[in-house]
Design brief:
187 residues, alpha+beta, Jelly Rolls, 2 domains, 9 strands
């Protein structure tokens, strides 16, 4: 039979248990995520506005291998532990030259080694004086791309050459979710 003292003790234990569960959840919620930021520059020659653009060559995006990323390695993760790879953001910034107004539309794609591709971000109708823009990202999981080894990022562009030679920096942030939560938090 439960006495008043036993009930009070049981309630305290339940409360402490609930608090421990909440703290464990909060402590483990970001342990299994790694943000990897990749940047690349490209230079577009100035010229006649009659020259039509169809892509921008960000060479540094030619081979992305998540398992080779230092932050991923430092945390001791393995590519087989990856639950998802999602794009957090894609940003374009003019390093030198004209604004981004010469671009009518741009789309970024993840491209697998077998040629398969998936839209990850796009933007259009930039302000004529825009020198920094954040593209709209899609909610696509690139897990299969990452687990195949490496993948690249490609672009499709609609627009014309800028009046002056222009260098653009693209920055892509990838959010890697790893299954570590199952081991540490019992999920």
């Amino acid at each position: 039979m439960l006495t008043m003292t036993n009930r009070s003790s049981l309630r305290r234990k339940l409360l402490v248990g609930r608090i421990c569960v909440v703290f464990a959840f909060l402590a483990c919620s970001d342990l299994d995520n790694v943000i990897i930021t990749k940047s690349a520059n490209t230079t577009i020659q100035g010229g006649s506005p009659l020259n039509i653009l169809d892509e921008l060559g960000f060479v540094e995006f030619g081979s992305i291998d998540i398992s080779d990323e230092q932050e991923f390695k430092n945390r001791g993760f393995d590519i087989d532990d990856v639950d998802s790879v999602k794009v957090d953001s894609v940003r374009l910034e003019v390093v030198s030259g004209d604004s981004l107004g010469f671009i009518d539309r741009i789309a970024f794609y993840a491209v697998a080694e077998d040629g398969r591709r998936e839209l990850i971000a796009e933007g259009e109708n930039f302000d004529a004086n825009a020198r920094l823009v954040n593209l709209d990202v899609t909610d696509v999981n690139l897990k299969t791309y990452a687990k195949q080894g490496s993948f690249s990022l490609g672009t499709e562009v609609e627009g014309t050459n800028p009046q002056n030679t222009t260098t653009i920096k693209a920055t892509v942030a990838l959010n890697i979710d790893v299954a570590v939560g199952q081991l540490l938090c019992g999920n």
